[in-house]
Design goal:
This protein is an all-alpha fold. The longest helix has 23 residues.
Length: 169
């Protein structure tokens, strides 16, 4: 049971790391290398197929920038964890590989048909696609908790925008 709690703990920390890197990747700036890499993701055309392109199986995501975005945001911390705590890191690396190659594109993350209550807990479908329409909200991956705790979910971002546009009295 302890192993399972620790695995979940490492998973939650990993989701926090990916959230923070994703937030940093949206900070405007000429010298923001994370942004330079990540914007490739926002310009990527996923097509209609539910099957990944052959290159994805080898962890190549269309370009060096798109691939580096995935490596920095998700893979690198898990490689470090696999070196330090292999019993947890290898499991999470396997999860990451399966999710990134087979589920992340049109199946879950960019599937407009996924709506409803599930997207309040898991940032897939419409939740993630709202981020593609409005870069100032919905940064989380795997768990939406970070967007709600750090007030970057769409509702909080809209409220901030309204307050900013409201006339000062």
């Amino acid at each position: 049971m302890r192993f399972l709690f620790e695995l979940v703990g490492w998973f939650v920390l990993w989701t926090l790391y990916s959230y923070l890197i994703h937030r940093l990747a949206h900070v405007p700036g000429r010298y923001n290398f994370l942004r330079y890499c990540h914007l490739k993701h926002h310009g990527y055309s996923y097509g209609e197929s539910m099957w990944p392109p052959i290159a994805d199986y080898f962890f190549w995501f269309g370009s060096w920038r798109g691939s580096l975005d995935v490596y920095i945001t998700f893979t690198l911390p898990l490689v470090v964890l696999a070196i330090v705590k292999p019993e947890y890191g290898l499991i999470l690396l396997a999860f990451h590989y399966i999710y990134e190659v087979f589920l992340s594109k049109n199946v879950l993350d960019h599937n407009p048909k996924i709506t409803g209550k599930i997207t309040r807990f898991i940032p897939i479908g419409q939740f993630h696609l709202k981020h593609h329409r409005n870069y100032r909200c919905n940064y989380s991956f795997y768990l939406t908790i970070w967007d709600y705790l750090l007030r970057t979910n769409e509702e909080a971002a809209s409220a901030r925008r309204v307050r900013k546009l409201a006339p000062k009295v």
